[in-house]
Amino acid sequence: MNKDEDTSIFTSDYQDTIEEKIDELKDDGNYTIDNPLIIYNPYGTGSLSYYIYYTSDEDSQLSYRISTDGYDGFERNLIDDYSLEKEFQLIGFVPGEVNELTLRETNKNNEVLEKTYEIKTPKLNENIDTQLEVTDGDAEAELSDGLYTVLGHDKNYASNIYVYDNSGVLREEFVLDGYRADRVIFDDGYMYYPYKKRGIVKVNNLGKIVKFYDLGNYAMHHDMVLDDDKLIILVNQDNTETIEDTVISLDLESGEVTQLFDMKDLLPEFYETAVNPGENSYGTDTLDWIYINALSIIGDDVVLSSRELSTIIYVSDFESDPEVKYLITDPSMAEGTSYASLLYEKKGDFVSQAGQHSITYYKDDSLDDGEYYLFMFNNNYGAATTRPDFEWSNYPGVGSYNEGETSYFYEYLVNENDKSYELVKSFKVPYSSIVSSVELMDNDNIVVGSGKDNSFEEYDNDGNLIRRFDYSAKKYAYRVFKYSYDNLFVNEK
Questions:
Q1: Contact status, residue 183 vs residue 479, Cβ threshold 8 Å
Q2: Secondary structure, 3-state, 390-454
Q3: Residues 274-324: pLDDT tens digits?
């Protein structure tokens, strides 16, 4: 199928036209497992994917295996409830190689039918590692299921989404329109991710973009999370004197965008005492006084991470009546303000987080009401360009932009009953002054992306290294999360 190279894939007309052409091909052919309809990346969204369609002789479930000389194999079970009609998007093909694809049908009697094809997959346009450098650690734990998803690879030089398996083999490239995707949201069989600064797409399991969302006068930065039928998004607002201090919601049904709050209204003293250094990380002179870089929903409330203030900010009733409930930071950060009453007390002897990213809330059954955990990538980075006179003496061991001994995985136990926080888990991770991420997996493993180190790792729950992956980049990747891609797969093999 030929596609007009002058036509952007990021239009409804393009996506609908491709779907119509596929439907015509489906109607014209008698496709079976011996002669399936296979189309390379028809919707333009996944560079290492193929659309497949055929009709089986009997109800069966479909799985597939990709074998490629010089690379570990890739095998997955598709979401297929004993159907006759097979219509799927297959990912995992190694770029620039001859891939051997084996389709495997299993009927209700557990009888198996297999068919194998050879497919030459095109090379990628970007110079991206096909095989990462892999180093095994000493931990005995198994790697978690899923695919490592590199977001903001090489900052914005190669900003598409790159997906790697547990062997460090590249298995997919999701194509974007010049902006890194800060996170991928999976919901009800769809993927949601930013494709440009002011736009988010909804993609179905065949790779078709079924809806475009326009953020209007807001531009994305750093993070978004799902809250029922809405996305809560960190944004920059047009025609303002500040950046990285505003939060909006996007209604996924109507597409309506609503500004929820501006941090200048919630923490005005921090804003008023900030000094404009003349140039921010965007290369402009707009004041980046708080640098919100992550958020996590807690019921009707939200917890935010401020890199510039090395502070965790809890905002209650964020959609209806936003108000700062508490701050977690070293008291020295709030000196000269009236915010001392908002500070939670540190329990124990440890250094509070500095320049942190990827704040995440979770709670288990062992905790009392009013208790929960917050975990994060503690960059251990001591810099605040809008507070040049701040003394970092209460943060021994912090690094600079280019040099540092270590960053940390940090996990706090927060107790709202006595207004305290306690470091209950910490282990060293490769130093990264900026960016970076942590993620707790379903099997309790911890995935860490150390952006400035050009690496990501998976640890067991005690912080013992299972496997490390190193990638090539001019700059760094912003985040690495591990997703199950449950819009495509079940019961990973």
A1: yes
A2: CCCCCCCCCECCCCCCCEEEEEEEEECCCCEEEEEEEEEECCCCCCCEEEECCCCCEEEEEHHHC
A3: 999 988 877 888 999 999 999 999 999 999 999 999 999 999 999 999 999
Q: Which residue has the tokens 């409330």?
A: 301
Domain of 68?
12-120
Instruction: Please report, for the chain, how many H helices and E strands are present, in that order.
Output: 3, 33
Q: Which two tokens stand for residue 491?
A: 């019961």
For 90, the 3-state DSSP assignment is strand
| Domain CATH for 103 | 2.60.40.10
Instruction: Enter the tokens of residue 418.
Output: 């006595």
- The answer to whether residue 28 is domain-embedded is yes
How far apart CA 211 and CA 228 sit, in angstroms, is 18
Number of domain units in the chain: 2
- Distance (Å) of CA 485 to CA 77, 147, 203: 11, 8, 12
Residues 6 or more apart whose Cβ sits within 8 Å of residue 7: 14
In angstroms, the CA 160 to CA 103 distance is 28
Q: Is residue 145 part of a domain?
A: yes
Beta strand pairing status for 49-68 and 98-107? antiparallel
pLDDT digits (tens, 9 = 90+) for 368-395: 999 999 999 999 999 999 999 999 999 9
Distance of CA 48 to the CA centre of its chain: 19
- Claim to verify: residue 143 and residue 96 sit in the same structural domain: no
- Residue 5 and residue 134 in contact, taking contact as beta carbons nearer than 8 Å: no
